């Protein structure tokens, strides 16, 4: 790799807002930035995005990771040669667009696995499009797991330097509550502590959120804290970890921002998403932990309704790129910890 770490930035679905937020992010890059971004997609797709965004920058097609950095005002694009110069209709599900999205992920992941890139930053994909292209994966994370041979992947939100983890993920609230068991919470604690250490917190302090109002009020409002969450926390503490909780959810995230903890293990999807996005919507990014490579991502979709209008806000993509640059130094730790998962 060049002296500055390279980040492979996939453009996502070429008819969504991914190309627009990618070019806005990379066109702003300066030679002195801590990392160098290389878009992964079709150069023609990026040139069209440049036009709709009104940007005065050049797209340079490349087919190798071993090349001098682009000059200011030039965006390098690793050519995947799927769409070519065709202009697909904006905001419409397309098998061709799906193939391009999948191919970009494959190329970027291979570069990271081979050490040619320090990590990947991903723009949003459309599930219907990748399925139309023949993919059997539910989404980005599952695809990355298959490409890297990892089955351990979890989500870590990062907002203003603080980390948020999840015991359960994309299930209904009713199912999430049913899935709260001592074993699942304990496993979530261990994965969160591991991720915190990998990403630079050598002696992490982790808070575990309660799930019921006021932490259950000693069983008056539910017994999950007594039966499942509390015992999982005690097991971790008895093993020597600095784990606090269960802490009522109406205060634990405020305490996180105050600096009492390095991270919080939330119990269900919205419990962690709402405070993070309320605090800093554009600054909240997703890191997939458990993969043997660094991967950061925006936490929004393809926004087909505004694609091609040049109005998409690139704030979250900028944040995902900036965080990836700051985390690039942990690439060896990530590979060492998760490479055999």
Biggest sheet features: 12 strands, mixed
CATH superfamily of the largest domain: Isopropylmalate Dehydrogenase
CATH architecture of the largest domain: 3-Layer(aba) Sandwich
Determine the structural class based on helices, strands and strand pairing.
alpha/beta
Question: What order do the strands of the largest sheet run in, or round the barrel if closed?
Answer: 3-4-2-1-5-12-11-6-7-10-8-9
SS field, number of helical segments = 12
Total strands: the figure is 12
What does this 3D model show about the protein?
There is one protein chain. The chain is α/β, with parallel strands linked by helices and 341 residues long. It has 2 domains: 6-150 and 281-338, Isopropylmalate Dehydrogenase (3-Layer(aba) Sandwich), CATH 3.40.718.10; 161-276, Isopropylmalate Dehydrogenase (3-Layer(aba) Sandwich), CATH 3.40.718. It has 12 helices and 12 strands. The protein has a 12-stranded mixed beta sheet, sandwiched between helices. Helix 8 (224-238) links the parallel strand 8 and strand 9. Helix 1 packs across helix 2 (43-53), helix 3 (95-113) crosses helix 5 and helix 7 (182-198) crosses helix 8 (224-238). The radius of gyration is 21 Å and the shape is elongated. The model has no long low-confidence stretch (mean pLDDT 93).
């Amino acid at each position: 790799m060049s002296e500055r770490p390279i980040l492979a930035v996939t453009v996502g679905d070429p008819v969504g807002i991914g190309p627009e937020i990618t070019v806005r992010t990379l066109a702003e890059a300066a030679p002195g930035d801590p990392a160098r971004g290389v878009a992964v997609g079709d150069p023609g797709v990026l040139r069209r995005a440049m036009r709709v965004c009104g940007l005065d920058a050049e797209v340079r097609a490349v087919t190798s990771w071993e090349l001098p950095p682009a000059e200011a005002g030039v965006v390098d694009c690793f050519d995947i040669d799927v769409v070519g110069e065709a202009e697909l209709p904006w905001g419409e599900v397309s098998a061709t667009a799906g193939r391009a999205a999948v191919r970009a992920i494959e190329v970027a992941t291979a570069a990271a696995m081979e050490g040619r890139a320090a990590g990947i930053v991903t723009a949003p994909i459309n599930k219907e499009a990748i399925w139309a292209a023949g993919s059997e994966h539910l989404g980005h994370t599952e695809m990355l797991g298959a490409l890297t041979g990892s089955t351990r992947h979890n989500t870590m939100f990062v907002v203003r330097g603080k980390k948020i983890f999840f015991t359960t993920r994309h299930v209904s609230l009713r199912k999430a509550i049913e899935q709260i068991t001592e074993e699942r919470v304990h496993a979530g604690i261990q994965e969160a502590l591991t991720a915190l250490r990998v990403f630079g917190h050598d002696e992490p302090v982790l808070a575990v959120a309660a799930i019921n109002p006021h932490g259950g009020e000693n069983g008056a409002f539910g017994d999950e804290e007594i039966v499942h969450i509390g015992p999982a926390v005690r097991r971790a503490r008895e093993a020597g970890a600095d784990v606090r909780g269960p802490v009522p959810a109406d205060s634990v995230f405020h305490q996180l921002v105050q600096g009492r903890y390095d991270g919080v293990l939330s119990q269900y999807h919205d419990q962690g998403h709402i405070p993070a996005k309320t605090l800093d919507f554009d600054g909240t990014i997703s890191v997939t932990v458990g993969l043997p490579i660094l991967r950061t991502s925006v936490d929004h979709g393809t926004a087909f309704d505004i694609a091609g209008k040049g109005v998409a806000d690139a704030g979250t993509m900028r944040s995902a790129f900036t965080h990836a640059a700051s985390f690039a130094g942990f690439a060896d730790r990530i590979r060492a910890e998760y490479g055999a998962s």
